[in-house]
Amino acid sequence: MRVKHHNLSKSIPHTKEIFTAGRDLKDASAAMILLHGRGATANDILTLVPELNPNELAFIAPQAPDYAWYPYSFMAPIKQNEPQLSEALELLKGLLLHIEQAEISAEKTFLLGFSQGACLALEYAARNPRRYAGVIGLSGGLIGPEVSISNYQDSLDGTPVFLGCSDADPHIPKKRVEESAEIMENLNGSVDLRLYSQMGHTINLDEIDVINEMIKNANIKD
Q: Which stretches within 18-136 are classed as H helix?
């Protein structure tokens, strides 16, 4: 797998480093934004790429400043995680615009995150609902001390949404994953929630299979 490094700070707010794999945007039929967890790197999350079906996709992984998208727990009061949380959400907005400028629409763009990155991907999609190719939250949930459908509006328009997590994750309460799945369903997402017995804070082969099936079913070829 060939990984490329880019500095897009002039065109995308709140980022300096972007790493890519798979096809170049100009040659891709679809894209996937991958968001790493706290303490990890863009290169870490890109190690998923060889396990996926990369034939038509451009994979894009931004690097979080200081290895974290926001400083405190995803269940801390929102204000404690500002301004970093808003900056991370703006970064995602900028990345999606960058991808759209390469003539790949949101409908052909996946949002995938693990752990803190999963929380960010889910939160962005819930705050900015539209049809995406897919939204994938691996060991994560919506952000805030409490979550409610009243905090979100509009529709995901049938976007496939996958939430996978351990039923006893030390960082992600099972209840929050279930609440997040319910809210995504209420936003008209097509939700697949899978809780794995005593899995720990990791990614398993079944989750990889689900993601590959989502890519297969997305009808992303030109």
A: 42-46, 84-101, 116-127
Q: Is residue 187 part of a domain?
A: yes
Helices (H), 48-193: 84-101, 116-127, 174-186
Whether the Cβ atoms of residue 202 and residue 127 lie closer than 8 Å to each other: no
Identify whether 150 is part of a domain: yes
pLDDT reading at 55 higher than 80: no
Q: Is residue 177, in this structure, part of any structural domain at all? A: yes
At position 98, the amino acid (one-letter code) is: H
CB contact at 8 A, 9 and 95: no
| Whether pLDDT at 177 is above 70 | yes
How many domains in the chain?
A: 1
The answer to whether position 222 is within a domain reads: no
Sign for the CA dihedral angle at 26, 207, 112, 84 comes to negative
